[in-house]
Amino acid sequence: MTATTSLPQTLAQKLIARAAGRSHVAVGEVVTCNVDLAMFHDSSGPRRLKPMLDELGADIWDKNKVVLVLDHYVPAQDADAQKIIQITRDTAKQWQLPHVIDSEGICHVVLPERGHLKPGMFCVGGDSHSPTGGAFGCYMFGIGATEMLGVCVTGQIWVQVPRTLRMHWSGRLQAGVSAKDMMLHMIGRFGMNGGQYQAVEFAGSAVQALSMAERMTLSNMSAEMGAQAGLIAADATTTAHLQSIGVSPERLAGAEQWFTDEDAEFEQHRFDASSLSPQVAAPHSPANTRDVAEFADVVPSIAYIGACTGAKLEDLRAAALVLKGQRVAAGVQLMVAPASAREQAQAQQEGVMQILQDAGATVLPNSCGACAGYGATFPEGATVISSTARNFKGRMGPASVNVYLASPYTVAASALRGRISDAREVLA
Fold first, then answer.
1. For 204-227, what is each residue's pLDDT tens digit?
2. In what order do the strands lie in the sheet with 279-281?
């Protein structure tokens, strides 16, 4: 997996060029790319793909390059969910898929957790938050069922080479401020179509200082900014993480080449991480973002720590740091849905889960849950402070539910104080 080009190229161009079997590609050019991995889940996968594949009399081009995750409808809440899960499991057996992750966590977390992603890959996912893979130096984006059908049959997809919008963050985040705050700030500034369905790249010393989990949050929520892909150059942090989960050094050969050339053409925007305050997005859009201090009079009835963007191990640790030795305020229900079973087990081993439960948390299954609007949605009239990525009206319960988005730090501090609060005040 090499990128041999003498022309200045962005990371997006390099990744697409490699997938297209080219030395370089130009912005605006339409090229056909070979797909290294396709991911779909119980909602986007067999129940939609199987009838179409059966009608065509076609098979999956390479079953080793497909990962199926059951995360949206598990555990089944009703007969419809049970039917979808059964279709998914039966089809997985019929197709003899070698990579099936069943009820062990959210696809965007368990996919990299199992070592399926590495720098230089070109991947697609049947879910809008598939850009999460960009944190690993991959080009990964979400596609619909019809496009996924084409990928499953041919192993290829066409793309128009995007412009790169580079978000350069200097400085360093304060304690109690996280990647979620960075992302909410950018969405608030540029809007939900600010990415213009182009490649958004996150760079600068503040981004380089982030852990892989925090980088995943940036790439994940590039979807809320309207980007096709959310990219971060591969570096020592990337390779060290992948080796720590069992990816061999041989499979990571050449990882350092996946970066944007400084003399490449891109649109750059600069930010100072050291001056960033915790951010909160008011109902009913992630773009309704302002500093946390502007929401001090909001009293939540539910504090929710969940979703692929807000309940990874590092997110659980952040909440525990705020809540250690304390109880949530009267009238606030704290709900925690860890993003994966493996990360929950590690949090249990570290004592993190015990801290959260001692603080009053109810622990929910490792699934998309309330974030996707399945299962444990919120009751009529609830005011929610949530670590999820979206707060659209009616997404997580009745239209009367008001969801405020924030980081796990802010969610935990708000649960503790009984009003939306700045975690920096608790941690001081």
1. 999 999 999 999 999 999 999 999
2. 289-291, 279-281, 402-405, 383-386, 302-305, 333-336, 362-363
